C-alpha cells in the first residue's frame, strides 16, 4: 500500500501525526468558570469510550492507549506514550471509522478492557480547547488541551481559575483506578 501523503512509502508521514498536550483538574461548576474567561461555546455531547488491550503487548506498561469513541460519530484513537513534560503530552492519531471497527479489532485479537462515559461541553479559548466533563463514577472535571505543547497557555487557564494546585496529567481511567 502506498500512502498519498508520502508517495513511494509504505508508511504515512510522521508530520501527519499530531502531538496533544493537556491537563485536567476537578472543577465544580466548570462551565460558568470557563464562560467567565470569555471562552466560546462549541458543542455538547455524550461520549462513550471503549478502551482495548493489545494482543501482543501491555498498553499499561508501554503507556499507550487504543480506544473507540462514540459520540455524534465513531472515532478510533491511538495515544502514544507520554513525553517528559509538566503537561500530559503525547502523540495522538484519530480518525472516523464505521461500526465494523469493533469487529475488526476483535478479529485482530484486541479485547475490550474498560469503558468510560461522560457528558462533555466543549469551549474554545484562543488556540485551546476547554472541556467541561461530567465523568460517570468520577465527577466534574475541566480538561484543557491543545495540539502541540502549549504549556504556558494551558497552565495560565488553571491559574486564572485558581485550580493550579489541583491539576493532574492522569487520564480518567487512572483517576478511577481502572
Question: What can you see in these coordinates?
Answer:
Helices cover 19% and strands 43% of the residues. With 178 residues, it is of the alpha+beta class. It has one domain (20-176): Beta Barrel (Hypothetical Protein Pfu-838710-001), CATH 2.40.320.10. It starts with 17 loop residues before the first strand and ends with a helix.
In short:
The protein has about 180 residues and is an alpha+beta fold. The protein is built from 5 helices and 8 strands.
Task: Provide key terms for this protein.
178 residues; alpha+beta; Hypothetical Protein Pfu-838710-001; 8-stranded antiparallel beta barrel; 5 helices; 43% strand; disordered N terminus
Inertia-based shape = globular
Major beta-sheet overview: 8 strands, antiparallel, barrel
Q: Which spans have pLDDT < 50 for at least 5 consecutive residues?
A: 1-16
Number of domains: 1
Portion in beta strands: 35-45%
